[in-house]
Recover the amino acids of this structure.
């Protein structure tokens, strides 16, 4: 059985949880920076698509997705 | 080289600057203070006859053969137990000594079989040698009296025999088990003439606590303890020094051959990692290399439902190249990639990532370190500036307090565990942080000061609480922090918050607050506090955070940058460190330099003549996801069995089935090969030529004991594929690959095969600043300048127990088996572990009506399998444990897609499961595994 949550959604929300202690703007930039540094472009594209589809992104993750885009 | 016999000076070397000068048989010799007369004579080139003495063991003084005369002293003291003193004058050969020695030897031989010509140790027997050395010509006592000549032979161990009739009761085996291995499995039973070596309580070796490390066999001066392979094949006649291909300790071995047949592997005394010690895997479990299951011819097939067809190398390589290029033409450059192996040499993994970057034209290269120690790379880079452990193994001998977190060294890294146990017996204190009561917690002559039975998934809360204690109780090394670190104040404010106190996290972690406080105080005030950790740290959703948390704690207590301290990953496979060093991650070029760095890309582009992609590629789990979504269609798998080792098996299977082309290079048709279209036969470590880098950054030579049985070295095959894809790659020798690595990697600039052959091994960084390498890192200054304190919030895993899945499964490995078992399952090691079992606490078993040995179903939200139960009170209530060595069990059928937030390292250590009696029998999809000849 494959996980029903899209991988990028699960992963970005996991990352976002690690940065909740930061002020929102700083957290979003840290998340975006991590994604730029470690994610393949197609994963970033899927993240954008998830954000566009109003997938259940953590608010910090949603802001990070905007910054990555 | 001919058979290498290392000198044996009889007693251990004594370290220390103070020296003593003595005269032995008129020859002056200067040795360190505390050296024995026996050793001093040996260093002067004078061999004193001996039997019970060997330089891996402390002096015992029982055989009475090493007697000497010393000016001004009465009698004939044993030279092994007599330390040198300044000006001492020693005589080793006098008529009196010669007479005494002959008398001693005569007594030994009067109770020893005189079958030298047919004895398996003929030519390698110290008793035989000493008889000659003392000039024994007759035995006056006859064999009519009481003797041991009919004593039985114990053949129970798969690898060695114990022929009691040849035992001279020198106690070397017993002492080796005690002093070197630290297991204390052997004893001398009885007294006087009745004295005999006894494993445990008098049963056989297999029934005893013996862990088959081989130290007793190595120590035995006769044929009493002898390898079965020597009995069967005869004495070897040549030696090749090479490196073990099992765990990350990286032991050096003498491969001893008779012609081209490997007879035995003997640990090398000069090996920097092991210094003459070994474990059951490295010492004995090499038979897989000649197992009939080995595939030696390339094979291809159009679909995974077709039969394999053996082909020549040209056709196999041509097929790989043409099909990879075809996929790229239809789906783009990023539609293919590769996974490299931490079991392969540095040179092999370097050329694999080069093939991906230069011939494939992308960064879709990842390594199996992804699923074990990728958080180590991330965490230590963030805090210390270098993705590697800080110490050499020897450093543990200077530790005052040793913290073992999420590691089980006696099973996973047994040779290092023996070093550690030696230090613990000397008085160092031990803290174990582990859900299970691992053997180190209480074993002969060792007892942990504190065992913190952390609930799986709450490591970060524990390490934060330890730091909280250090900060709030004034135990921080203020001078170290002020001089060497940055961001301390911010971190200290965070960590001092009451929610990080041991009392606040006790309910989360399950660790009694008082114990945690006491353990933290012990570490913080240790003098030298050393942290060693394993996959119980990294394979979590917060694996990287935990690594940084340990680094924070070590820096706060000033435990970095000298002998006896540090933060040290115990790497799982032989070349995890090396494969990471070699640029096998999709975001990093060799030397841990990010692909977005234009200057670094320019360096490689200039050398390789190709443009390097500036965006990171896919990591292994991302490759699986991309395969299912159709954007990733061609995969080269080099020496890995992702279908068995990676989590969430059904997801991995689905991904592999989605691929247009899967190429597997391996020794055997492994589980992944079921999904492959091309199979390329690999070379065992005995056939490889190159280097491995162990967990202490030690680069060791791997030398060809025999030519590759497939006819090609693996690096040649990679080069052939790249060339066939239009990017010419060729080397005439692996040393040229290392030269290329050195030319582009700042921490390797001094490394060459020539240097390694000269020094034996070297620990990187090895460059103009450290031409002989760097045993301990971050002395004086961190690699990144200042050590960085990082805020480490505890964030619970998303994997939660529920009413349906109320238990937590954690997985690991055991002493006799290794990872997916492809190697060890094809050796005599199956005698100890024929199947994976599920360890369950008695209360959890009773709640479910389960008894020891029952077959149970293990189910998680992603899958289920069956296996037998072992009821074990070393497990905590609510936690179950199994290994993943056998494909028929398929432990990863139940592990999930959860992973470390930073690196995607799978969360193998936390899976919510239920266990119930198996009715009816459930088997997972890999049951139809390839039969292993003779074991199916």
């Amino acid at each position: 059985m494959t996980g029903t949550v899209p991988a990028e959604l699960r992963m970005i929300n996991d990352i976002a949880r690690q940065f909740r202690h930061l002020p929102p703007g700083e957290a979003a930039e840290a998340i975006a920076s991590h994604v730029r540094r470690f994610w393949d472009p197609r994963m970033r594209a899927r993240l954008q698509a998830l954000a566009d589809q109003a997938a259940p992104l953590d608010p910090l993750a949603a802001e990070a997705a905007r910054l990555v885009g | 080289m001919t058979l290498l016999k290392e000198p044996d000076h009889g007693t251990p070397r004594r370290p220390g600057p103070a020296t003593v000068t003595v005269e032995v048989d008129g020859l002056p010799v200067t040795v360190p203070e505390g050296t024995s007369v026996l050793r001093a004579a040996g260093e002067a080139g004078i061999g004193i006859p001996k039997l019970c003495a060997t330089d891996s063991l402390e002096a015992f003084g029982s055989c009475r053969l090493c007697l000497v005369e010393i000016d001004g002293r009465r009698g004939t003291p044993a030279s092994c137990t007599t330390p040198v003193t300044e000006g001492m004058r020693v005589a080793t050969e006098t008529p009196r000594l010669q007479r005494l020695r002959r008398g001693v030897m005569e007594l030994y031989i009067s109770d020893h079989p005189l079958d030298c010509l047919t004895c398996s140790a003929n030519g390698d027997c110290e008793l035989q040698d000493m008889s000659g050395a003392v000039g024994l010509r007759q035995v006056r006592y006859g064999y009519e009296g009481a003797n041991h000549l009919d004593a039985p032979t114990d053949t129970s161990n798969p690898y060695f025999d114990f022929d009691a009739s040849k035992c001279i009761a020198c106690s070397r085996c017993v002492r080796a088990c005690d002093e070197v291995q630290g297991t204390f499995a052997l004893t001398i039973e009885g007294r006087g003439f009745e004295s005999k070596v006894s494993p445990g309580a008098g049963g056989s070796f297999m029934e005893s606590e013996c862990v088959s490390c081989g130290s007793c066999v190595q120590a035995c001066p006769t044929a009493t303890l002898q390898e079965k392979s020597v009995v069967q094949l005869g004495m070897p006649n040549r030696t090749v020094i090479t490196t073990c291909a099992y765990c990350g300790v990286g032991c050096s071995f003498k491969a001893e051959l008779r012609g081209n047949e490997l007879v035995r592997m003997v640990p090398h005394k000069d090996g920097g990692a092991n210094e003459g010690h070994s474990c059951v895997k490295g010492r004995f479990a090499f038979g897989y290399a000649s197992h009939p299951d080995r595939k030696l011819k390339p094979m291809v097939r159009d679909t995974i439902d077709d039969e394999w067809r053996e082909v020549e190398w040209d056709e196999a390589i041509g097929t790989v190249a043409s099909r990879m290029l075809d996929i790229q033409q239809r789906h783009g450059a990023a539609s293919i990639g590769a996974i490299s192996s931490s079991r392969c040499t540095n040179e092999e993994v370097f050329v694999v990532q080069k093939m991906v970057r230069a011939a494939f034209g992308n960064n879709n290269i990842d390594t199996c370190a992804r699923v074990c120690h990728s958080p180590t790379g991330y965490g230590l880079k963030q805090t210390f500036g270098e993705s590697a452990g800080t110490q050499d193994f020897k450093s543990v001998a200077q530790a005052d307090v040793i913290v073992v977190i999420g590691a089980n060294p006696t099973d996973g890294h047994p040779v290092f565990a023996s070093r550690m146990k030696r230090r613990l017996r000397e008085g160092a204190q031990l803290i174990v942080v582990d859900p299970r009561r691992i053997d180190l917690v209480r074993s002969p002559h060792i007892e942990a000061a504190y065992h913190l039975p952390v609930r799986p998934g709450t490591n970060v809360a524990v390490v934060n609480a330890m730091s909280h204690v250090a900060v709030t109780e004034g135990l921080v090394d203020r001078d170290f922090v002020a001089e060497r670190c940055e961001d301390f104040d911010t971190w200290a404010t965070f960590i001092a918050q009451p929610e990080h106190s041991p009392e606040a996290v006790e309910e989360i972690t399950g660790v009694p607050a008082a114990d945690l406080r006491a353990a933290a105080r012990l570490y913080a005030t240790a003098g030298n506090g050393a942290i060693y950790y394993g996959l119980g740290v990294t394979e979590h959703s917060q694996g990287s955070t935990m690594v940084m948390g340990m680094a924070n704690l070590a820096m706060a207590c000033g435990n970095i940058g000298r002998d006896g301290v540090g933060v040290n990953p115990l790497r799982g496979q032989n070349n995890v460190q090396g494969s990471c060093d070699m640029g096998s991650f999709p975001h990093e070029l060799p030397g841990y330099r990010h692909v977005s760095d234009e200057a670094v890309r320019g360096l490689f582009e200039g050398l390789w003549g190709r443009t390097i992609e500036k965006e990171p590629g896919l990591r292994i789990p991302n490759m699986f996801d991309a395969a299912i979504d159709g954007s990733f269609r061609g995969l080269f798998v080099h020496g890995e069995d992702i279908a068995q080792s990676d989590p969430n098996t059904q997801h991995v299977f689905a991904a592999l089935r989605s691929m247009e082309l899967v190429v597997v290079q391996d020794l055997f048709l492994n589980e992944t090969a079921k999904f492959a279209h091309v199979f390329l036969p690999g070379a065992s470590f005995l056939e490889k030529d190159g280097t491995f880098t162990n967990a202490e950054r030690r680069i060791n030579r791997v030398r060809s004991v025999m030519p590759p049985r497939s006819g090609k070295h693996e690096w040649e095959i990679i080069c052939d594929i790249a060339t066939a894809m239009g990017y010419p790659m060729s080397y005439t020798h692996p040393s040229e690959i290392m030269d290329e690595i050195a030319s582009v990697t700042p921490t390797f600039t001094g490394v060459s095969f020539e240097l390694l052959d000269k020094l034996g091994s070297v620990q990187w960084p090895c460059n103009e600043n450290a031409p002989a390498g760097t045993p301990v890192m971050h002395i004086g200054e961190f690699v990144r300048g200042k050590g960085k304190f990082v805020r480490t919030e505890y964030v619970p895993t998303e994997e939660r127990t529920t009413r349906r899945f109320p238990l937590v499964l954690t997985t690991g490995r055991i002493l006799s088996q290794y990872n997916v078992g492809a190697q060890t399952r094809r050796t005599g090691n199956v005698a100890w572990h024929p199947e994976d079992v599920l360890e369950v606490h008695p209360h959890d078993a009773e709640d479910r009506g389960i008894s020891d040995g029952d077959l149970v179903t293990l189910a998680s939200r992603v899958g289920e399998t069956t296996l037998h139960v072992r009821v074990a009170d070393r497990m905590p209530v609510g936690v179950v444990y199994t290994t993943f060595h056998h494909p028929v069990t398929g432990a990863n059928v139940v592990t999930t897609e959860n992973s470390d937030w930073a690196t995607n390292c799978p969360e193998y250590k936390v899976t919510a499961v239920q266990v119930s009696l198996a009715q009816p029998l459930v088997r997972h999809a890999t049951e139809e595994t390839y039969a292993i000849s003779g074991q199916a």
Q: What stands out?
A: Residues 19-134 of chain B form a domain with the Ubiquitin-like (UB roll) fold (CATH 3.10.20.740). The radius of gyration of chain B is 29 Å. Chain B has four domains: 19-134, 299-372+575-763, 374-569, 807-927.
